[in-house]
Amino acid sequence: MARTKYTEFLCGYCNKNTKMEMVGDLQVGQEKMWLKCTRCHHMSQMDLKLRANDSKNGKLDAASATKYTPEQIFSVGQAIFHSEWDDVGKVTSKIKTSDGHMAIVVTFEKQGQRRLLENFKPELLDAVL
Ligand SMILES: [Zn+2]
To answer: How far is residue 33's CA from residue 47's CA, in Å, rounded to a whole number?
Structure first.
């Protein structure tokens, strides 16, 4: 007998994320699974295949990526979101530009490889101007 397992899932009846009881044993390769809401006791079906694909294809998610601002410092491998271009990318390396600024090299999904400033201090620029 498997122990009862619970997970957070969106219940269509409660219309919110609730604690759900996983119904039945989870088999390897199983594509769908029934969950029972602990609040309203209605059953919901979770598509496991869909979830697995989401995490497997390595698509960058704008919601979880860090929004790019020039003042920030980024690290290699970090996912960032550029709101102006509406594009997500991954920091592949860090460089110093010829004029002494710190920059990140980012491979964007739509824009391709781009250089963006980081650790940029606008107040210093204002002082110069
Ligand atoms: Zn419910």
So the answer is: 7
